[in-house]
Amino acid sequence: MAKKVHFLGIAGSGASAAAAIAQAQGFEVTGCDLEPHNEFTNIFKSDQLSPGHASKHLENVDLLAVTPAIFSLDPNNPELLAAKEKNIPVLTWQQFLGEYLTQNKFVITVCGTHGKTTTTAMIAKILEEANLDPTVELGAIIPGWKANYRIGSGKYFVI
Questions:
Q1: Between 32 and which of 43, 50, 134, 144 could a Cys-Cys bridge form, CB atoms 3.0 to 4.6 Å apart?
Q2: pLDDT tens by residue, 9-32
Q3: If you write DSSP's letter for every residue of 107-157 in order, what string do you get?
Q4: Rounded (5°) CA angle 108-109-113
Q5: pTM exceeds cut of 0.70
Q6: Residues near 73 by Cβ (< 8 Å), separated by ≥ 6?
Q7: Nearest residue to 140 (alpha-carbon basis) of 67, 65, 70, 38
Q8: Rounded distance, CA 121 to CA 139, Å?
Q9: How many helices (H) and strands (E) does the chain have?
């Protein structure tokens, strides 16, 4: 099992939530982005976040989780190329979330073009109010959680 995961594009709403949940589940997390410090990444210590993209970010990394846009917008990204050169597995953060973070959970997934975050938050709130303690990943900061994720110990994982 991958223990040290580096998130390329960690400042995004989805990748940051996946990284926070990974950290809560015991993964060692690092990440980078053009501007890695924002409202989504304030849970991480400053030494976990690196500005820009460089192959040196992959030292002692077991897995690289990337934002999907990297494949089309920056296919020659130095971290992506270094991961391939070093045989470090590369997954999108969504694949990482599905393969590593939702194990033994009942997953509730919301998809579509509009209203995903609102619907996900509503489902999460219902489960939370029912004392079912869900883990949640969504695209906006929820005022009551002060985060774009929720760490729960129940069987439900809402995405």
A1: 50
A2: 999 999 999 999 999 999 999 999
A3: EE---SSS-HHHHHHHHHHHHHHTT---EEEEEEEETTTTEEEE---SSEE
A4: 150
A5: yes
A6: none
A7: 38
A8: 9
A9: 5, 9
